[in-house]
């Protein structure tokens, strides 16, 4: 697996932020987001912005940020529901995030929410939080979603790495359910030829890029595989093909899903 690089991740946060701002500008922020039950577009934007400000605070100050509500200024954004004010708050937070990340470089330690990462995985996580929530906003507004294919592939890599690390930390109890008896899952991007193989062993799951025999296979264009993998499309979507044990795929995705 090859990372896209710290500088590219920073550049893409700028680009993805602008794409999301353009998407929501003029939209009704009270519109519900079906892929994030209970959320509106306003909730979604405040969620992303709060995450960016939380991580930026840790990077800039060098202090662990484990209680954002007590440690992060302007965490949830403006008190009003004014769309222009919310967009400006979001844009400012994203700009600060990128500025602090570029200044720090890829190797500075930053602890957030009890997770002690360096800045490279944090900037990568920040990017893909925006990437996926822009998909949510696109679905909510009924507009087409486009994403560079290398970013889409990196989104799958990043999610698998994220949950592999959280599994090792014991941070999410439900990940213990993914211990298995040799079951395996295969993701296949039919348009790019990329694939991801996931094994469920006695100690938990492991993964690698590449093909292999699988208990269940999810195949389709990369963006559709990404959407199903993130629970933004159902496994029954006509845009993908599932062969084998569909119940295993559902079970696995239920435990690695992110809002």
Concise structural overview:
The protein has 259 residues and is of the alpha+beta class. It is built from eight helices and seven strands.
The H/E string reads HHHHEEHHEEEEHEH
Structural class: alpha+beta
What is the count of distinct domains? 2
Gross geometry? globular
The averaged pLDDT comes out at: 96
The fourth-level CATH homologous superfamily of the largest domain is: dinb family like domain
Radius of gyration: 18 Å
GO cellular component, one term: plasma membrane
Pfam families: MDMPI_C, MDMPI_N
GO molecular function: metal ion binding
InterPro entries: DinB/YfiT-like (IPR034660), Maleyloyr_isom (IPR017517), MDMPI_C-term_domain (IPR010872), MDMPI_metal-binding (IPR024344)
Structural overview:
By secondary structure, the protein is an alpha+beta fold. It has two domains: 6-146, Up-down Bundle (Four Helix Bundle (Hemerythrin (Met), subunit A)), CATH 1.20.120; 172-255, 2-Layer Sandwich (Nonspecific Lipid-transfer Protein, Chain A), CATH 3.30.1050.10. Helices cover 49% and strands 15% of the residues. It contains eight helices and seven strands; from the N terminus they run ααααββααββββαβα. A five-stranded mixed β-sheet has the order 5-4-3-6-7, with helices on one face. Strands 1-2 form a two-stranded antiparallel ribbon. A hairpin with a 2-residue loop joins strand 1 and strand 2. The model has no long low-confidence stretch (mean pLDDT 96). InterPro entries: DinB/YfiT-like, Maleyloyr_isom, MDMPI_C-term_domain, MDMPI_metal-binding. It holds the Pfam family MDMPI_C. GO terms for molecular function: metal ion binding. Residues 150-250 form the MDMPI C-terminal domain. One of its GO terms (cellular component) is plasma membrane.
């Amino acid at each position: 697996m090859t990372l896209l690089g710290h500088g590219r991740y920073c550049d893409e946060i700028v680009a993805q932020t602008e794409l999301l701002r353009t998407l929501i500008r003029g939209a009704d922020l009270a519109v519900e987001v079906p892929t994030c039950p209970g959320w509106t577009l306003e909730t979604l934007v405040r969620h992303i912005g709060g995450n960016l400000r939380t991580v930026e605070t840790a990077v800039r100050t060098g202090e662990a940020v484990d209680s954002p509500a007590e440690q992060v200024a302007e965490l949830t954004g403006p008190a009003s529901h004014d769309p222009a004010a919310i967009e400006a708050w979001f844009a400012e937070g994203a700009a600060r995030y990128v500025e602090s990340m570029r200044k720090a470089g890829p190797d500075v330690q930053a602890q957030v929410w009890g997770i002690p990462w360096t800045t490279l995985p944090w900037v990568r996580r920040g990017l893909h939080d925006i990437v996926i929530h822009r998909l949510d906003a696109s679905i909510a507004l009924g507009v087409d979603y486009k994403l560079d294919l290398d970013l889409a592939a990196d989104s799958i890599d990043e999610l698998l790495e994220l949950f592999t690390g959280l599994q090792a930390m014991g941070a999410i109890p439900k990940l213990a359910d993914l211990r298995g008896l040799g079951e395996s899952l295969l993701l296949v991007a039919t348009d790019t030829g990329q694939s991801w193989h996931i094994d469920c062993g006695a100690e938990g799951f492991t993964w690698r890029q590449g093909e292999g025999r699988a208990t269940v296979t999810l195949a389709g264009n990369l963006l559709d595989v990404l959407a199903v993998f993130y629970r933004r499309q159902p496994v029954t979507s006509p845009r993908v093909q599932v062969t084998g044990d569909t119940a295993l795929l559902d079970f696995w995705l239920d435990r690695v899903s992110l809002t």
